């Protein structure tokens, strides 16, 4: 990366959301405004987020923020998805009133919901990577509802690590891989935001694809899935691409649910510029 192309100092600050909650963010780069919306168990400090920020900052002014309840951002009870949309609106307003959004996983669902609410005047273009909608159809509606309930119960009981473990088990993560996660330096970062799994499940709703919402997203949209990712991610991406009025669909070669910044950056540059 040629750092001479970047605005070399990361600018850190906070913006106050509509309900008074401070939302921490940082900016890097020059060019059109692009806001990153992270997925479950992820925030600015998480593995891969800084790499994505630095890669995209070669072409955009990138805002990376801690979603409410995570990292250095505040929180307020009770949780409502609308509050997270208001957080995004505050960040967009701080950026000058309009921006591109790039959402990953559950962050993609949040970005999609925000685009419908805020409209194309504020969300100029929208890029989504593997929104995990349609998972309820794969695992069964009752099983999905039971998992959502159990996640809420484990978080409420402060059984640290149990909600994360259940979450990864539902994705058929091998037990030895989960045990390796627990021994990694990133486990404590995930523990610090474990309670926000409840928030992500609220964003996913009943776990099905919200066709009526998608029909009413009028922002130009790019929907991506990784070639080697879960099959249902491709089905969901296909359905959304057919339902959102102005949408494009791409499959990223050799990618799993954990995408490479070097692979996605050229796609975003081509779409957003």
Low-confidence stretches: 1-5
Principal-axes geometry comes out as globular
- Strand order in the largest sheet: 1-2-4-3-5-6-7-8
Radius of gyration: 18 Å
SS-based class: alpha/beta
- Share in helix: 40-55%
Question: Major β-sheet, in short?
Answer: 8 strands, mixed
Written as H for each helix and E for each strand, in order along the chain, the element string is EEEHEHEHEHHHHHHHEHEH
The end-to-end distance, rounded to whole angstroms, is 19 Å
Describe the structure.
This protein is α/β, with parallel strands linked by helices. The chain has helices at 49-56, 81-94, 106-118, 135-139, 141-156, 162-170, 175-182, 187-192, 197-204, 211-215, 231-243, 261-272; strands at residues 11-16, 22-28, 33-37, 61-65, 99-104, 123-129, 221-226, 247-252. Helix 1 packs across helix 12 (261-272), helix 2 packs across helix 3 and helix 5 runs antiparallel to helix 6 (162-170). The longest helix is centred in the middle third of the chain and has 16 residues, at 141-156. The model is unreliable at 1-5 (pLDDT under 50).
Helices and strands in order, then pairings?
Elements: E1 11-16, E2 22-28, E3 33-37, H1 49-56, E4 61-65, H2 81-94, E5 99-104, H3 106-118, E6 123-129, H4 135-139, H5 141-156, H6 162-170, H7 175-182, H8 187-192, H9 197-204, H10 211-215, E7 221-226, H11 231-243, E8 247-252, H12 261-272
Parallel strand pairs: 3-4, 3-5, 5-6, 6-7, 7-8
Antiparallel strand pairs: 1-2, 2-4
């Amino acid at each position: 990366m040629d750092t001479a192309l970047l605005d070399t100092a990361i600018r850190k600050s906070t913006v106050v959301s509509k309900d008074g909650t401070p939302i921490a963010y940082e900016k890097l780069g020059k060019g059109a405004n692009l806001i990153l919306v992270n997925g479950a168990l992820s925030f600015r400090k998480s593995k891969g987020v800084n790499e994505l920020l630095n890669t995209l900052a070669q072409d955009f002014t990138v805002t990376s923020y801690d979603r409410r309840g995570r990292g250095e951002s505040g929180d307020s009870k009770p949780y409502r998805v609308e509050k997270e949309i208001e957080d995004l609106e505050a960040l967009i307003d701080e950026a000058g009133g309009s921006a591109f959004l790039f959402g990953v996983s559950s962050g993609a669902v949040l970005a999609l919901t925000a685009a419908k609410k805020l409209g194309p005047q504020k969300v100029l273009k929208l890029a989504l990577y593997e929104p995990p909608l349609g998972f309820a159809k794969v695992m069964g509606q009752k099983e999905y509802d039971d998992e959502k309930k159990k996640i809420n119960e484990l978080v409420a009981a402060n059984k640290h690590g149990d909600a994360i473990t259940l979450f990864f088990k539902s994705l058929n993560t091998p037990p030895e891989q989960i045990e390796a996660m627990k021994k990694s330096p990133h486990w404590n970062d995930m523990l610090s935001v474990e309670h926000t799994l409840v928030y992500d499940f609220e964003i996913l709703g009943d776990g099905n694809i919200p066709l009526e919402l998608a029909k009413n997203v009028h922002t130009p949209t790019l929907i991506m899935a990784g070639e080697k990712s879960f099959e249902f991610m491709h089905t969901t991406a296909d359905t959304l691409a057919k339902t959102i009025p102005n949408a494009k669909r791409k499959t990223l070669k050799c990618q799993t649910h954990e995408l490479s910044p070097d692979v996605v950056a050229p796609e975003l540059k081509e779409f957003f510029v």
